[in-house]
Amino acid sequence: MFLLLTQILLWLLITIMLYKLFKEIIPKEYFTLIGALFLFAAIAIGFFSPSNQLVSSIWHVLSFPLKPVGACILLLGFAMRKGLDKSKNEVLAALLILLLSSTPLVSNLLAQGAEQRAFTAQEAATRSAAAIVLIGQGTTQPNIPPRTQIQLTDTGDRILYTAQLYRQSGNDPLVIVSGGPRSNLQGSKEQNIEANDIRTLLVNLGVPESQITLDTKSTDLRGAAEASEKILRERGLANRRIFVVNSAVNSNRTRQTFKDVGLANVIAKPTGFFRFQSGATSNNQKATPPTFQIDSLIPSVEALRVTTRVFEEFLSSIYYYLRGWLAPGIF
Questions:
Q1: Domain boundaries, the chain
Q2: How many CA atoms, within 13 angstroms, populate the side-chain half-sphere of residue 275?
Q3: What 3-state DSSP class applies to 175?
Q4: What angle do CA 323, 324, 327 make, to 5 degrees?
Q5: Whether the model pTM is above 0.85
Q6: DSSP string of 98-123?
Q7: Does 3.40.50.720 match the CATH number of domain 120-273+301-309?
Q8: Model pLDDT for residues 22-53, shown as the tens digit of each residue
Q9: Residue 227: which residues within 8 A CB-CB, separation 6 or more?
Q10: Tens of pLDDT along 83-113?
């Protein structure tokens, strides 16, 4: 009952915030009942069909003001509308958000908070599993002109790590590649399915094609978990140990999502860490405290990117919680 009440209160809070936001942006004569119904319909569709491409676009628009760059643009837009001489507070707030979110010291602290729960020392030491699930959506770019090969994105290290885990396991685990259709791609069906390109790369990295199974429909984490659970149950592996490879900032939500669909023996195998502990060693010895560097106070685009990724993961965790897919306190 407490969980349900909390979810209802959060939904009411989000609705009120969106209403206030749109009321400020849209003139009253245009903010009609039809507009309100359209907004409600968009939220409802996003709730029940999160993988829909139109819903994904709407979600990106609605969540934009909740990210650092979006918040800055929104505040500056309010300032321009009211007049700069009357909007010093808004301009100052936008500058402060941009400064903090692009400072490496701040982005490192945020990344540390998101990544420190990625896995335990015992999980890190585990070398073998019955299956490895690769969350592959968004890890590659297709081989279409002017490219001359399949390219990796900034999350492409998941593919390399999956191949490494397969070689280390020594027991020929099943490899499930989750990667559905790419959005806004004009090309053949073979090129449009990202899992096909990931399979090609894994084979080139030494993973036998006979050990690779594709999930060609899922475009989000929940869909990947449900599809993987079905494949594993059909092969009698649902109760065996499962590795799930995803970026470190997403690993906590990944583990809980896979457990929520009925895969109890799940071990997160994160990669793509934004932050590392200075002085840490590969054999899990106690690390020395990180040293302070003056560069950590100089704003950078990379730090802004890291902060944005952490905020995106936080917003996704809230959505998963509202859907009842995450337990309270998981984010």
A1: 2-114, 120-273+301-309
A2: 25
A3: strand
A4: 135
A5: no
A6: HHHHT-HHHHHHHHHHHHTTS--HHH
A7: no
A8: 666 656 555 555 566 666 666 666 666 655 56
A9: 178, 215, 217, 218
A10: 877 888 999 999 999 999 999 999 999 998 8
